[in-house]
Amino acid sequence: IKPPASILFIFGGSGDLNQRKLTPALYNLFIDNWMPEKFAVIGLGRTAYSDDKFRTHLLEGIQEFSRRKGEEKAWGDFSQHVQYLQMDAGDPEAYHTMTEVVKQYEAEWGVHATVIFYLAVAPQLVPDIATKLGGLKWCKDTQTVRIVVEKPFGHDLKSARELNNLLNNIFTEDQIYRIDHYLGKETVQNILALRFANALFEPIWNRNYIDHIQITAAETVGVEDRGGYYEQSGALRDMVQNHILQLLCMIAMEAPVSFDANEIRNKKTDVLNAIRPISREQVHEYAVRGQYNSGWMKGNKVKAYREEKNVDSKSPVETFAAAKFFIDNWRWQGVPIYVRTGKFMHQKTTIISIEFKQAPHYAFPQEAAETWRPNRLTISIQPEMDIRLRFQAKRPGQSMQLNPVDMIFSYKDAYDGHEPEAYETLLLDVMEGNATQFMRADQVEAGWKVVMPIIEAWEARPPVDFPNYAPDSWGPEDAEALIARDGHNWVSLP
Ligand code: BG6
Predict the structure, then answer these.
(1) Distance CA 156, CA 356 (A)
(2) Among 181, 186, 381, 388, which residue's CB has the most CB atoms within a 10 Å radius?
(3) pLDDT computed for residue 370 by the predictor
(4) What is the per-residue pLDDT across 155-191, written as a single tens digit (0 to 9) for each?
């Protein structure tokens, strides 16, 4: 079933996110026949564009960034639904124009439409835009009016709370869609299927069988042209508070009773609330920060972070973060969870690895022991999309030699390799009014609570050893030590 008639207002319509992600996603939904029968996409921005120029700008985005370059045949049809409205989001009068636009479409279509405000704007503009939207009476229609807010959602716990209070004073929680695009990724959604559609894993998914868990989100790019934003953020705020903690929730949550949005989100929030608070004094034992130096990245000379555009030459901002968490509940007591993320890492990879305990008794001859490895389930989120179950096998031959082998489920082999992008899934969810894969106010705040002690300890003690890792590496040595102290190694794909 297609979503109901929808009008999407995109604040920041002339910006990067719309050109690279939002419009390509909407266009792909259109090609796949998921867009509503009646819909309009209205880009809002201060740049002067005619409708035609705006459409050309968006088409260029599709030609450059869409996963389906070369499929522009339907663009002519799609672009008829797209228009541009030049407006200064700070001007209250401009909002009345939106009222007129909605009225016109509704009269033309003969239906009451769903109206979505997508705030693809700098975070400091969000409160003002939301407040001005609140001035439009029809925004109180909780059934059909929705607002989508991009990350970063706040700068710390305090500002996130303030933003939540502000939004919740204007809209009901059901109207607010806080995006974390990791939740829209196919491989991330599949974690729920893996865990809760199979009877196989659940009995061993706990402290009795799992030794520890690792989450790596490594990128081979630096901060690119986002130095200005990144200086206010750093790896912990940019990746851990949101994406990585959300992955952790998917892995660690209890089984939901239903797929109801609040049921799933309750179960995830329980995980965040159960993460053991790290005291500020202990932060050095539990977290490691790094910043990249200049060097070589896959044959290219790259600048140190401190030499990037809009970055302070003495910047204390981390481009790498690793941490160890514990979840204090019945299922996970005592199971360490190691996470790491960084820019200019050796390999682009986001993987979750579940390391199981050793078999309780080892009856094999001594020589077999040399190749002994524990069982491991690796979920590759991207760019490889697969799940590998590692177990011991007997190497063919006359002696009892064991070696680890992998049983692999690969998306590429099992399906046709045309998985939707996260923004396609999430935009469709917004039009359908399904908030399951979006962050609720309490989830965002609980995520901040987890990282705040680390942020505070790091801010109180500026780093003395930055830059402390070379591009094309796995980050600073201390990150190896963090996990090696417990007798483990970071897992990466071969
Ligand atoms: C964004 C961060 O949220 O996620 C970026 O702001 C990061 O710094 C990006 O590069 C990673 O997303 P993906 O989907 O490429 O893993």
Answers:
(1) 35
(2) 381
(3) 63
(4) 999 999 999 999 999 999 999 999 999 999 999 999 9
Among 57, 181, 212, 243, the active-site one is 243
**pLDDT tens digits along 86-123:** 999 999 999 999 999 999 999 999 999 999 999 999 99
Q: Does the pLDDT of residue 366 top 90, yes or no?
A: no
CA distance linking residue 457 with residue 440, whole number of Å: 27
Counting from 1 in the atom list of ligand 1, the atom nearest the Cα of 230 is 8
238 lines ligand 1 (CB under 6 A): yes
Angle at 436 between CA 127 and CA 354, to 5 degrees: 110
284 is catalytic: no
Residue nearest (by alpha carbon) to ligand 1 atom 14: 182
Rg (CA), the chain: 24
User: DSSP strand E in 241-330: where?
Assistant: 287-290, 295-297, 300-302, 320-325
pTM above 0.90, yes or no: yes
Tell which atom from ligand 1 comes closest to the C-alpha of 223. 8
150 CB within 6 A, ligand 1: no
Instruction: Give the closest residue (by CA) to ligand 1 atom 8.
Output: 238
The ipTM assigned to this model is 0.98
Atom of ligand 1 nearest to the CA of 382: 16
Q: Does the beta carbon of 424 lie inside 6 Å of ligand 1?
A: no
Q: Length of the chain, please?
A: 494
